[in-house]
Amino acid sequence: MTKIALITGGSRGLGHNTALALAKKGADVVITYHSRKDEADATVAAITALGRKAAAFQLDTGKASSFPAFAQALKAELKNTWGRESFDHLVNNAGIGIHVPFAQTTEEQFDTLMNIHLKGVFFLTQALLPLIADGGRIVNLSSGLARFSLPGYAAYAVMKGGVEVLTRYLAKELGPRGIAVNTIAPGAIETDFGGGTLRNNPQVKDFVAGVTALGRAGQPDDIGPAIASLLSEDNRWVNAQRIEISGGMFV
Asked: How far apart are CA 56 and CA 153, in angstroms?
């Protein structure tokens, strides 16, 4: 049976790259997007060009009150498009970056990060549990910043640290259903994340290269295929793990 993956924030960056990597491995893909429908449509078109089925939904992953309605819409899509009542893989990827020193971090900024990166992951996964097939897999996106520390990322990293703890608890509680849950923690990747600071700033890129064992900043193609591989049967016994994909930053 063809696997179906749901990727939040799948219209751009690492989510887009992961969607294409999964499609290339023969999976059908559902993505969510926040506001850029054009990018979502382009991602769907790229997936279908690979011979796979795809669908896109608008979703604000920082608004937990919208999750029950989203789950119902997804259930209908699964039935209409795939003739199924479940999907196989959930990739909690959607997120934003806020770079601000600890002393200047506002409660509003903290809450925004928490609602998207921690509360959103917690309650969206909870809302989708009835739709995740037994034997399925969940991948939560963390960050290298949950291991090493750089000024200005305290609030963001705190949320990612919470996601890593949540991953272990989900693995424990969902184990009886055969659902494996892991964390992928990317290092610094050249995308539009955080306003594209790394991608567009040569000085930042040089700094990252200097603290990375493999001597360069990461590319989206370093991450998407790795997530797709983790979701494959080859890695069926990997569970409750934090896997950092950073080229060896700060080792």
From this structure: 31
Does 100 reside within a domain? yes
Instruction: Please report, for the domain that includes residue 221, its CATH number.
Output: 3.40.50.720
Residue 250 lies in a domain: no
- Does residue 16 lie in a domain region? yes
Token pair for 101:
């020193």
**Among residues 56, 47, 41, 55, which one has the least CA distance to residue 25?**
47
Give me the number of domains the chain comprises: 1
Please indicate, yes or no, if residue 240 is contained in any of the structural domains.
yes
CA proximity to 105, closest of 156, 163, 62:
156
For residue 32, give the 3-state DSSP assignment: strand
Determine the Cα–Cα distance for residues 46 and 223; give it in Å rounded to an integer. Answer: 18
Q: Which two tokens stand for residue 204?
A: 């930042």
56, 11 contact by CB (below 8 A): yes
Handedness of CA 86, 92, 93, 97 (dihedral sign): positive
Residue ranges making up the domain that contains 227: 4-245
Tell me if residue 156 is catalytic: yes
pTM of the model: 0.96
Q: b/e for 204-228, b at 16 or more Cβ within 10 A? A: ebeebeebbeeeebbebebbbbbbb
Q: List, run by run, the mean pLDDT of 10-residue segments along the chain (251 residues).
A: 97 96 98 96 98 98 98 98 98 96 98 98 98 98 96 97 98 98 95 68 90 95 97 97 97 95
C-alpha Rg value of the chain to the nearest Å: 17
Annotated catalytic residue: which of 33, 153, 156, 169?
A: 156
